[in-house]
């Protein structure tokens, strides 16, 4: 139980989630929380993209790696 709770806390650091009142799990709004620094490093943007993919689509790490490889191939070919 603790592992799932900790994972949810990590995700909430990157997203500002607004739920319906009460114990409902339905989302009203989901906004990305930006860092206070002006520039984001490439590593951080990639990490945020991974977090979004995991949270929104429930993808596993292997699927995310394949996705990023596919994107790199598209960029190199164009």
From TrEMBL:
The UniProt entry, under InterPro entries, shows: Ribosomal_uS4_N (IPR001912)
- Give every Small ribosomal subunit protein uS4 N-terminal domain span: 37-69
* Cellular component GO terms, alphabetical: ribosome
Q: Which Gene3D superfamilies match?
A: Ribosomal Protein S4 Delta 41, Chain A, domain 1 (1.10.1050.10)
Keywords of this protein's UniProt record, alphabetized? Ribonucleoprotein, Ribosomal protein
Provide the GO MF annotations for this entry: rRNA binding
An example of a Pfam family matching this protein is Ribosomal_S4
What parts of the sequence cross the membrane? none
Spell out the family assignment given in the record's similarity comment.
Answer: Belongs to the universal ribosomal protein uS4 family.
Q: What is this protein called?
A: Ribosomal protein S4
Recorded source organism is Besnoitia besnoiti (Apicomplexan protozoan)
């Amino acid at each position: 139980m603790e592992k799932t709770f900790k994972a949810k806390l990590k995700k909430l650091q990157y997203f500002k989630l607004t739920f319906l009142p009460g114990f409902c799990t339905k989302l009203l709004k989901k906004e990305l929380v930006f860092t206070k620094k002006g520039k984001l490093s490439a590593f951080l943007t990639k990490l945020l993209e991974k977090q979004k993919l995991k949270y929104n689509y429930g993808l596993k790490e292997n699927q995310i790696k394949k996705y990023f490889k596919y994107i790199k191939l598209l960029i190199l070919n164009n």
